Amino acid sequence: MSDNQELKVREKQAFDAPAEQTKPGPVFTPSVDIFETEKAITLLADMPGVKAEDLMVDLRDDTLTLAGEVSDSVKTTGEKVLEEYQTGRYYRQFSLSEVIDQEKIDAKLSDGVLRLTLPKVEKATPRRIAVQVG
After folding, report:
1. Which terminus of the chain faces fewer neighbouring Cβ atoms within 10 Å, N or C?
2. For 67-96, what is the mean pLDDT?
3. How far apart are CA 61 and CA 75, in angstroms?
4. What is the strand order of the sheet 32-36 is part of?
């Protein structure tokens, strides 16, 4: 990568839902960072403007679904000069493998970032076995 190359902001991308939508408006795919350690997988999903009461984290048939809605809560009579984020809905799904302990999944929402901690089952956690002599 050359030194004169700039970082470019990637705009929010609209999601083409496979099913017919019952609500009008755009649906966005939240950007997600995924980190893995020996004990857990952590997902950080960017969902600016979504409040906890408008967020749904659903786990069914080994599929984790994130869905949230951003409402246009500020009503003004003037023209918008700057809009930090668009209003609409967020939707993204993940298939979970058998290494995730689904009963212990933890979710926290803070400042528009959803943090999901997906702990691994004990048998999937690598460990060192001590060898005894004799």
Report:
1. C
2. 78
3. 40
4. 32-36, 40-46, 113-119, 106-110
